[in-house]
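Input structure tokens:
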């Protein structure tokens, strides 16, 4: 049960504490932030409203702890990460309970997220030992005009303090995807969880605490973004920011200064369907890609671009599958659950009403109860409709009929987003040409967009992000190259 058993020390009365210097603490502000259950629309949890002074203290502790951690052997860092992973998976049930109540994630998916996160941490530990255990050796005479009088040794060293900011939809998995690489690389870590998903993150952080990481190395500060958001991202003690979320990331990137940034900021992932595609396969992937977790995924299919000649058949197949989706509370493991906030539901409804006013074909009746929105397929969507371009982050999927592949590629590339896309065809040559033409970080061929497996590179173009994620890329991004050059008094050649 959340906040009970081994997690009892993270809860004080009805409010969860924040984590600093290896201890669970109440904020000196005396204030809390309410977390509303998307299903009941009532306050489910409360977390501390940390102050800027507490942020300053956390940063000082992180800076000090990092110096010691950087001297910790790689095998020891990996050992602690493996231990944290095991503890996390052992306590998957209470953490999954938090995900269900905080973000209305279906029960089965909530458990899967926690287990996947443990696996990610373990993989990171193993990969980090391999990557960071190797360096480079260069000799000077490979460059014209030089004798072999210089030996160059390179290695990867930590950046310092990493600020990690995960999103609400995968608060545990996308937190550990930042925490693991940061720690194995020798950095300290300050976590600012999303409001919806904060309690899940606090439980996850306690698993690292139980694993025995040094005091001050990991901190988790909760509070309102309006009060500590900019203060955190612009803090001079931060040496790297890894952020996943919406267009707030654009603002962060403009203010952050000269530090490495890893940003994933959403997408309008297009699904291009050619005449020769297996329409049953397409329909199954549209359901999985467009409606799983109520469409609240950066990699959800967010617009279907289908050739006119097969559009009628595809729409009918998708409609039949939509009719079978189970709608209801996450506790019942339904396919479609309430979206995360009332403001999100209102935004989605605004897109639906705009499409209705402009003549889109509703394949189902639009229905909403509170934050719960029934899945809706919109056919005959035109480019003048908002839903053609904006990211709904809900169970609403537009279908745009196209008359050529070029038309589909043009629509995809006209978007200010460029996270992922997919193309369905039996012709691999066409698929590769379309993939090369699509301005997205990843293109899936004959499958819906997806983030993962977690060791695959994951990146966006344009407003979808900066840098690349995936375990190896994240470790590389959270380190820098250190070079030492040995100068010899005279040229020296092996066996010379």
């Amino acid at each position: 049960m959340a906040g009970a058993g081994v997690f009892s020390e993270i809860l004080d009365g009805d409010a969860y504490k924040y984590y600093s210097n290896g201890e669970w603490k109440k904020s000196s502000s005396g204030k809390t932030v309410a977390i509303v259950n998307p299903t009941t629309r009532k306050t489910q949890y409360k977390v501390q409203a940390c102050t800027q002074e507490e942020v300053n203290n956390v940063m000082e502790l992180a800076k000090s702890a990092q110096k010691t951690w950087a001297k910790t052997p790689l095998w020891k860092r990996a050992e602690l990460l493996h231990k944290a992973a095991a503890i996390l998976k052992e306590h998957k049930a209470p953490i999954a309970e938090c995900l269900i109540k905080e973000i209305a994630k279906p029960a089965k998916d909530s458990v899967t997220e926690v287990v996947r996160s443990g696996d990610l941490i373990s993989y990171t530990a193993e990969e980090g030992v391999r990557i960071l255990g190797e360096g480079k050796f260069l000799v000077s005479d490979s460059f014209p005009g030089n004798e072999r009088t210089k030996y160059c040794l390179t290695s990867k060293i930590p950046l310092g303090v990493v600020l990690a900011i995960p999103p609400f939809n995968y608060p545990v998995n996308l937190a550990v995807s930042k925490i693991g690489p940061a720690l194995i690389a020798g950095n300290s870590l300050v976590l600012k969880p999303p409001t919806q998903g904060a309690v899940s993150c606090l439980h996850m952080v306690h698993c690292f605490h139980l694993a025995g990481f040094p005091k001050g190395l990991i901190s988790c500060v909760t509070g309102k973004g309006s009060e500590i958001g900019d203060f955190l991202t612009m803090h001079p003690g931060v040496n790297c920011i890894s952020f996943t979320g919406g267009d707030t990331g654009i603002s962060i990137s403009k203010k952050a200064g000269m530090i490495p940034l890893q940003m994933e900021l959403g997408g309008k992932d297009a699904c291009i369907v050619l005449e020769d595609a297996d329409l049953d396969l397409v329909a199954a992937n549209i359901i999985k890609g467009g409606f799983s977790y109520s469409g609240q995924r950066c990699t959800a299919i967010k617009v279907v671009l289908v050739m006119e000649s097969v559009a009628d058949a595809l729409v009918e197949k998708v409609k039949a599958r939509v009719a079978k989706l189970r709608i209801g509370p996450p506790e019942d493991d339904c396919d479609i659950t309430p979206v995360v906030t009332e403001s999100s539901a209102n935004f989605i409804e605004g897109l639906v009403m705009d499409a209705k006013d402009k003549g889109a074909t509703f394949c189902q009746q639009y229905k909403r109860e509170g934050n719960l929105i029934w899945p809706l397929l919109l056919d005959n969507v035109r480019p003048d409709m908002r839903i053609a371009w904006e990211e709904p982050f809900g169970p609403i999927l537009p279908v745009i009929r196209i008359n050529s592949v070029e038309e589909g590629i043009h629509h995809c590339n006209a978007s200010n987003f460029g996270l992922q896309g997919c193309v369905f065809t039996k012709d691999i040559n066409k698929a590769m040409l379309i993939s090369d033409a699509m301005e997205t970080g990843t293109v899936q061929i004959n499958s819906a967009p997806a983030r993962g497996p977690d060791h695959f590179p994951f990146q966006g173009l344009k407003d979808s992000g900066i840098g690349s994620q995936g375990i190896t890329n994240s470790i590389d991004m959270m380190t820098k190259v250190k070079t030492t050059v040995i100068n010899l008094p005279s040229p020296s050649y092996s066996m010379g």
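The chain has two domains: 3-264+463-479, 268-443. DSSP finds 14 helices and 28 strands in the chain.
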